[in-house]
Amino acid sequence: MGLFNKKSKGETIENDMCNVTLHLNMRLMPIDRGSLFEDPIDEVLHKHDIGEVTGGGTLSNKERMPISCDVEFSIKRSKIDDFISFLKAANTIAKDSYIEYDGKREDIGKLEGLNLILDGTSLDASVYEENDVNNVIAEIDDLLKGKGQYHSYYIGEKNTNLYFYGVSFEEMKEIIANYTKTSPLCENSIIERI
What we know:
Blueprint: H1 9-15, E1 17-24, H2 30-47, E2 51-60, E3 66-76, H3 80-89, E4 97-101, E5 104-108, E6 112-119, H4 125-130, H5 133-144, E7 148-155, E8 159-166, H6 169-180, E9 190-193
Antiparallel strand pairs: 1-3, 1-4, 2-3, 4-5, 6-8, 6-9, 7-8
């Protein structure tokens, strides 16, 4: 037997790997991209011997605000359909996201995005001293109760952006708008679709 014996056709297909990129139309800081997508998906891929996460990146604007991000995978060709079905079934990906592999592109995602922009500079100093943005996030998450969820943030020079994703932007907007009327940190806040 030679050192480089040919594998049977079945083995070649089973072990042939395919590079797959998941483009997320989501504003996620790198640490959140890792904890929400890369780490849990990598765990599932290894558990079921499908493949692995090979990288990721976040596209930011010139102020370093996240715009979108990618997660890269190496997936067994024989499992590619299962992997794509798994991603499509996951209710954690925003609309206008997509998967790319072998020159193909498939749209994916169901969630809508909301950016709650908090005034970071012009409120009374006591408001910033006496209130915690983490409490705002927790209270909004509790009010959304499955209609949406906090995913990430961005702190700029003048504003703090809180990114929520859910089934309906309008439903999340109504809930969050009512909350902002009672929260000192949300004075002058703006809600926008992302």
